[in-house]
Amino acid sequence: MRIQTHNGFRTLRTARRAYASHPPRARLNLPTDYASTPLLHHSAKSALANSELSEEARNGTTTRINLFQAINSALAHALRTDLRVLLFGEDVAFGGVFRCSMNLANEFGGDRVFNTPLSEQGIAGFAIGAAMQGMRPVAEIQFADYVYPAFDQIVNEAAKCRYRVGSNASQSCGGLVIRMPSGGVGHGALYHSQSPESLFTHIPGIRVVIPRSPIQAKGLLLAAIASNDPVLFLEPKILYRAAVEHVPAEPYILPLSTAEVLKEGKDVTIVSYGTPLYTCQSALEAAERDFKCSVELIDLRTVYPWDRQAVMSSVRKTGRCIVVHESMVNAGVGAEVAATVQEGCFTRLEAPVQRVAGWSTHSGLAYEKFNIPDVVRVYDAIKTAIEY
Known about the structure:
The chain is of the alpha/beta class. The protein has 2 domains: 44-248, Thiamin diphosphate (ThDP)-binding fold, Pyr/PP domains (Rossmann fold); 260-387, Rossmann fold, CATH 3.40.50.920. The chain has 14 helices and 16 strands. It has a 7-stranded mixed β-sheet with strand order 5-4-6-7-9-8-14, sandwiched between helices. It has a 5-stranded mixed β-sheet with strand order 11-13-12-15-16, sandwiched between helices. Strands 1-2 form a two-stranded antiparallel sheet. Strand 1 and strand 2 (9-13) form a beta hairpin. Helix 5 packs parallel to helix 6 (151-158). It is globular and about 60 Å long. The relative contact order is 0.13.
């Protein structure tokens, strides 16, 4: 707020902010400190201690890189070791909007890394045809918001291919990966902020994967390329440069459809994936301090098919469950998780399952961050669950 003087009169004028930000005295909604969060590996020793890594990776070295560089590393390894791998999409040949394919066309040539016309339906259709001919195409949709023209190709062709041809046929879409940057960054507005993952979790025959960090991105992407199922790989764009950690230099794969317990607890289970995990971590640290409780945090990693047993095992222990995601609350991943927990853990629940998710509205340019879960909303959900 500013005070201006005009002709002897004092007038108040409010300084308008273009985007949502935390107030000066905020205690909870502070910017994420990626340099200290326990969700990232800040030393080589910590990174290499991951039991899911291959023995070769655990005995190797690490490089401190961000998420887009981890994606680039995984793509380079896949292209280098398997001649069937192709990489294509809009602007991919010179690095892509977020630089994930930087320098790959120079190393592997225009026959394997190339640009496509501005046609998402064409990109997906070409990728499906290539996969059915035995290739392992990695197609990039420049923003997840633009995947909708390809929805018919993905749902009616890629997802149904193996079921349609039967077990005796050799053709399938195994090896098909469709990458797309997703989620909000604070100022993406209508067409650069969407998280459309739940639309694809209704469709049998495809996997939907969302990594939370560079280590996860590299291992899950290599697993997706090696998978015999078509995979939609959504990359949280705000983490491309923000999330930096030590990543094993050697190639490795991480298991698909397997959740990871990031922090053990005994009073409340929080289930999330992608960027909101950092919000959940900040909220649970404050809640544990204020309410003297113990919170368990689970990363789904693969949101379809998701790891039901890991989640229900946790909820049977804690008796309380909160599901957090950035995409809209209506018919979202949280709805499916909540229903499954209610069916499988009803007699062990001490409080109703809560969903903390994006509001059911489009994302406007101004105050975009108000639409998605913040630390206060997750903190309040923990408080509600504990006090129920």
